Amino acid sequence: MNMMKQLLSQSGRTVCLALVLSLCSAAAGITIVGGVNQALDSGVTDIGQTLVYYLGLVGLLFCCGIGSQVLLVGLGHKLVYRLRADLVQRILNTPLVKQEALGAPALYNVLTRDVTMVANAIKQLPISLYNGLLLAVGLVYLAWLSPLLFGFLVMLVGLAVWGDILLAGRIKSMMQEVRRLDDDLFRQYEAVVEGRNELGLSHPRRQFQFQQRFEPTAQQARDTAIKAEVLWAINLNWTTLLVFVLIGLVFVAGTLLESVSQEALVGYVLAIMFLRTPIAMILEAIPAVIRGNVALSAIEHLELSQSSQSLSDNAVPVTKPVTFQSLELRHAEYHYPTQGGESGFQLGPIDFKAQAGELIFLIGGNGSGKSTLAKLLTGLYLPTVGEVALNGHLLTPENAEQHRSYFGAIFPNFFLFDDVLDEQGNLDNPRVQHYLKRLAIDHKVSVDGGSLSTKALSQGQRKRLALLLLYMEDRQVLLLDEWAADQDPLFREVFYREILPELKQADKTVIAISHDDKYFDAADRLYKLDQGQIRPYVVGRDSLFEEMSEPSVRIAQDV
Ligand SMILES: Nc1ncnc2c1ncn2[C@@H]1O[C@H](COP(=O)(O)OP(=O)(O)OP(=O)(O)O)[C@@H](O)[C@H]1O
């Protein structure tokens, strides 16, 4: 709810104006009801004047009603827009480690389902506010008409409202359960979409995925949602019935109590009938509001970054990087958080230094910590213990953005963007043609207006495009995590024998994670990771994997 308060506080003036207009409209409506009641009781003396008053009030009701609705509808959509923008910016500003812990399904759930739920709740805002005010003005009128009957009415309505509050609490916990199940469902959707190849090949797995994983969760979500909605629908009908019971009881009480005039009685019946619609509309809006509330709590529960650093203006958050000189790790460690009672992987302590213009290979077995080290070097992870320093400046949460601006990286799970941006963030840089040719991909892809013509390519070709994007960004330090793994032997040769030396010549510092022992001689220095520990690797002296035979290639310059 804090998020909603923040968003609403930015529209204080609109809310106030809409409130005043709604109040005027509601007051005009109740005055018409009161006037009709009075006319029924005492008749009309001046028909012309009465007609003028009547038309004036109808006009006021219409204009103020329209005015408040226009303001509130606009406000509702602006709130949804701000919520979306705020959420996307908060995700973009959330540290990688937190995003990885949350997982993609949870983030998609928030961005799609939760935002829609909040949007639906916000849509109820104009209707509920208007009807709430109408109800409030109506109650003031009833209190004025007969305080005695009003006391009686408050007692009865109080009971009904108490029942509604209890029921709303029960429905809220059901909707929280539906929301929890939705998180599970999004994980199932991810398996269905991302696992399309495996599922396409295996009928038993498809059946298992559908019957054992998807169906039970979807059915439970369906049943809980139906239960909640039906409970509220029963309550809605019960409340409508209560209005008629109320009229009857007021009528009986009024006839029994001598101090209550006939005019007050008729006024009560008229006003309660008139207020029936706003009451029903408010009650109808409540489930959507509860769902929105549950969705907002779910968004807040993710504990995304609170940073509201705007990405929509042109302000550049970091100063232009100076010339890269060195990158150093001093007793640096990175600990993954404990998961399911098991302590996370621990990288380090590591001491490591890369100088400008060096070409360094990181090697090691699966799970030895190479990619973790890459994320630590690039500033995507901050060290748990020890220090990371670039040009002698220690990496801190405050300067992490500046640190990262030196790096370009391709990780194994890279994402290929449609747009080819240059170092200034501009599209349509003519250099792109040269690199398309260099990466031997110009026959498959063109870049038009800064956008890739296609991404429907093989994995090796997609990696070449990722390298194209990296070339265009022209960062000083490049981190290539098993880039060559998907290349054919011919282009692998081009990569190690031509592209890497060219990058070195262009004063780039390259840290490449590689399993290609055939090309270890291309590196200036080699480091091997083993269970989170690093040590220099000497070709010929050290074995790549303990069980493997001695590699035959020697590097030009041993460490
Ligand atoms: N996002 C994560 N959350 C928690 N633990 C992780 C995460 N990513 C990796 N790990 C743990 O860190 C260890 C090292 O992973 P890392 O990806 O750094 O290995 P790697 O050397 O790059 O392996 P590979 O050669 O298979 O890519 C893994 O064994 C895993 O247990």
TrEMBL record:
Residue span, ABC transmembrane type-1 domain: 15-291
Pfam families: ABC_membrane (PF00664), ABC_tran (PF00005)
Start and end residues of each ABC transporter domain: 329-556
Organism taxonomic ancestry: Bacteria, Pseudomonadati, Pseudomonadota, Gammaproteobacteria, Oceanospirillales
First-listed, main subcellular location of the protein, grouped into a coarse class: membrane
Positions of transmembrane segments: 52-75, 127-144, 150-171, 230-253, 265-283
GO cellular component labels: plasma membrane
Name the record gives this protein: Putative ATP-binding cassette transporter
Organism: Marinomonas alcarazii
InterPro entries reported in the protein's UniProt record: AAA+_ATPase (IPR003593), ABC1_TM_dom (IPR011527), ABC1_TM_sf (IPR036640), ABC_transporter-like_ATP-bd (IPR003439), ABC_transporter-like_CS (IPR017871), Cyc_pep_transpt_SyrD/YojI (IPR005898), P-loop_NTPase (IPR027417), Type_1_exporter (IPR039421)
Subcellular location: Cell membrane
GO biological process: peptide transport
Keyword annotations from UniProtKB, A to Z: ATP-binding, Membrane, Nucleotide-binding, Transmembrane, Transmembrane helix
